[in-house]
């Protein structure tokens, strides 16, 4: 199977057949083995196992309470063809983020060895709070506080410098417990799969050949803008469904789901975060939050516009592939193209 993807979060790199299989994951997973795993890994006795009301596509997730009243989150696959080393990468990324003052989930243990169990899993400390995508009862001012804090989180992540660019090498993560990108430049990462994705959108009838050529030229002409000397840790999935907040203080208690983490330009997080579903405009407060801690580059708006478009392109492909492309989502492509008059 192809290994180098631009974006992999939420099953974006899965085939239709794989997605159909994953929709049955809770029926196929043996929940009783969790007790054995907790005894083996943490020497803890399980008291209660609960399926969350909100679950993602690629993994089974359960909340686990042990008899000493500690709360955990258990996350596993169904035993993919190859060990899911990305679970190790997620732990390395969240550990680095926590060391640099970023509120995040704490992954206690990862096992991709397949020695004792025929699948890969993580055990995390359970992260508490409300999820703004599914339960937000505050005002716009309260929501703006969340966006401002996300901007500050991106600024803190920008201080975590990484080696090379793009998604991280699974081989190096597994063997050396280090995060090293697979590509030699940020430009190489940003254009990864770009031409094929644009061709996919042409074939579906949503852009024409002239637009295809103009978009491709735009990105190649933007090489000096995109290329940076050193990459930073980029979450690249800062959506409302990927963080929790305290319902009274509206303080973010933690971000999670590091599946799409990469080494890139911090502005990629600023450009991409507002492309997810938001209750109110997000970009302004993201920028304010970032700039409350450090200065953005002078050309940041140009970068935001380009990274927003790059993100929308893979999302349109994802939406077409899984028959999810609504008029609202298609309008986002039109708006992302507008600054470039394409």
From TrEMBL:
It comes from the Bacteria. It holds the Pfam family APH. Residues 61-274 form the Aminoglycoside phosphotransferase domain. This is Aminoglycoside phosphotransferase domain-containing protein. It comes from Candidatus Roizmanbacteria bacterium CG10_big_fil_rev_8_21_14_0_10_36_26. The lineage of its organism: Bacteria, Candidatus Roizmaniibacteriota.
């Amino acid at each position: 199977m192809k290994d180098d993807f631009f974006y992999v979060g939420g099953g974006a790199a899965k085939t239709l057949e794989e997605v159909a299989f994953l929709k049955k994951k809770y029926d196929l997973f043996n929940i009783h083995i969790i007790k054995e795993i907790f005894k083996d890994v943490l020497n803890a006795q399980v008291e209660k196992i609960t399926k969350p009301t909100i679950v993602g596509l690629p993994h089974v997730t359960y909340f686990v309470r042990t008899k000493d009243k500690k709360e955990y989150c258990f996350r596993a696959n169904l035993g993919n063809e190859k060990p899911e080393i990305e679970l190790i990468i997620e732990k390395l990324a969240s550990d680095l983020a926590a060391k640099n003052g970023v509120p995040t989930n704490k992954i206690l243990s990862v096992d991709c060895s397949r020695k004792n169990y025929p699948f890969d899993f993580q055990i995390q400390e359970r992260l508490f709070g409300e999820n703004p995508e599914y339960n937000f009862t505050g005002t716009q001012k309260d929501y703006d506080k969340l966006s401002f804090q996300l901007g500050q989180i991106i600024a803190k992540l920008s201080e975590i410098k990484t080696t090379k660019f793009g998604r991280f090498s699974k081989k190096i993560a597994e063997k050396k417990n280090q995060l090293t990108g697979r590509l030699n430049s940020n430009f190489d990462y940003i254009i990864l799969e770009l031409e094929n994705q644009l061709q996919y959108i042409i074939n579906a009838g949503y852009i024409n050949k002239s637009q295809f050529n103009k978009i491709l030229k735009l990105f190649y002409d933007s090489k000096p803008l995109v290329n940076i000397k050193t990459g930073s840790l980029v979450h690249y999935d800062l959506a409302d469904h990927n963080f929790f907040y305290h319902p009274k203080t509206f303080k973010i208690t933690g971000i999670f789901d590091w599946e799409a983490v990469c080494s890139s330009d911090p502005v990629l997080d600023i450009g991409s975060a507002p492309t997810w579903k938001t209750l109110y405009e997000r970009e302004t407060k993201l920028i304010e939050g970032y700039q409350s801690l450090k200065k953005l580059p002078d050309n940041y708006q140009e970068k935001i516009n380009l990274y927003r478009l790059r993100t929308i392109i893979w999302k349109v492909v994802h939406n077409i592939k899984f028959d999810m492309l609504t008029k609202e989502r298609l309008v986002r492509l039109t708006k992302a193209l507008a600054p470039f008059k394409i």
